[in-house]
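Batch manifest, entry 17 of 40.
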Amino acid sequence: MRVAILASVCLVVTGLAPTSMAQSAEPSAVTLEGFSDAIHHWQNRYGDAYERYDPSQVSEIADNILLLQRDNGGWIENRDPMRVLSDAEKAEYQAEKSLVRGSFDNRNVYPQVEYLMGAYEQTGDEVYRDAALRGLDYLLTHQVEGCGGWPHTVPTSERYHPLITIADEVTSGSLNLLRKISEKKWPFESLSEDVRERTRTALEHGDDCVLRLQVRQGDQLAGWAGQYDPETLEPAMGRTFELPAIAVQETVEMLRYLMSIETPSEAQVRAIEGGVDWLKEVAIKGTRLEKFDLPEPVEFRYHTARQDRRLVADPDAPLLWGRFYDVNDNTVVLANRDSVRVETYQEIAQERRTGYDWYGSWANDLLTEDYPAWQCRVLSKAC
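Output type: structure tokens
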């Protein structure tokens, strides 16, 4: 079941608070930072040889986002909002508006909502605000009732679509948006208190879910999985090669979200410290991920490989992390598309070895910069 916490938000008479009641903030600019993943995926599939709007052309980009928004308020993933569309493409997207499929995957929905509100604040065109409210309604309607996270895609067509999804900032990105709205941050200062109150309710529900989903190993808090069963709240398989496991990249992004909270609760502080301690514990020392050129490019269904990768011993290598760790013994979890776990990196098929990041330095900046800064700000430590 889904909870329609904000089912009527787009029907609020104005959606705005009186100007005198809005909390003013430093002027901010409309940015496209939230679309970097979508643009990357689009160009990965179609190349980058197409005409694009300049970032300063806010109305043109916002009009694209309006065109791509479906009648139910949602969007599908992996579209570049900066593309200059032909008349035929505009007609195609207009015809798709009645389709119901939408996705939160690859950092989707919440960037559109924020951009449209920024476009409204910059241009004063209420059509952008109204579309942002429809997008917000869509996001909150699909918050999972039992725990408070978000699914991958609705309606579901793949086994993993209904799972509570942490991967690709599906849940943390949505919560970041709700927090900005709740705290009257730009570009959301003008929203009505009715909208803001309903948003706070969803935010509290989601923040509680984040703490419930953190994996526990005995009496120690660890990290977060990429996705969870919405009924049992146990880590679940994503795609066929993504076995149930603690995911480092997702853990890093969830910790960044928790660290962004101005006044965290004691439980949130414990979650942060537990997650950081776990990242330190599972860091791989003395091993380097090396890329080497292939004799000729190898074409796969979703990418063309020009390089391969291998692990090599190097006592001077910086810290490295596996993408996935076993929830019980913290061994690195590796698997092919057949869902069979393998022991070594070289047992991963070349297609998955070159098309997926099984090892990386995801936690480095968090441990060396973000966490010390958070300790200084919140705990008055290591300043």
